[in-house]
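Record TolA-binding protein, 288 aa.
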Amino acid sequence: MILTLLAGLSPLAVQAQDTEQMTSREGIALQNQIMDLRQQLSQMQSAVPGGQGGGILPPPMADGGSRSGNGGSSAAGGDLTAQLLDRVMTLEQQVRDMRGQLDQLTNQVQQQNATLAKQIDDMNFAMQNGGHPSPRPAASAVPDASAETDGTGGEAAPPAKRTPDIVLKDGNAALMRGDYAGAQNAAKQVLAGPKGPLQIDAQFLLAQSLAGQKQYRQSAVAYYDTYNRSPRSGRAPDALLGVTASLLAMGDKNSACQALAKLKSEFPSPAPRVKTAETAYRTRAGCH
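=>
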């Protein structure tokens, strides 16, 4: 009698072990991704002073024209300072994006661990009572893409349409790689979709991608459109700085000073990083 009962419970034990091993491998894979993201985040935080703030356009090239003597050296120093400030702000944006990805992966691991614990408890209960384990949940925390079919044994169904949030993240990643055309396409795709708060970020990404392609006249307009969409948002000061940088890259110092005057008038007490960039641009443009 005891041998018969043990023989009936043995398959249940094997099934519990297989399920635990399979889900543990998925958890380990996610934890490895989290460790990679933490390492990248640490590297970027060491490269960005303070690790906080928002992004701005990729560093524009210095405007054309020959310079000589001490005036040329001073202008070159101003150009380098402005480019370094732009790069710092771009890295700060990447830090924020990586933190968001890290939070998502952490939540996935926690959900998967909870699912695994429940499955093990169900199987242990079934083995102790000589019954069968409870059915596996219809949807796990991390779906198995290989299990998706059309219901007739055919090929898997096509992937779901990408959301604007995913498209925007891909666009920012393309911007970081220097793929400005890809970033521009992603921004336009979000802007062509339904209205929403992400459209401000998409408009800002469009301006950054145009500046990266040295289309400074178009980028100045795109930055100003970002400001007009939400003049009191957190993007507004960065957008006005982007207008200034684009105008300076075109050699239009007078208009750049006007943009800085608008920034000072509407944001008299900006964040320290904005104030630092404003001062550098003001010096470069020779504003009074």
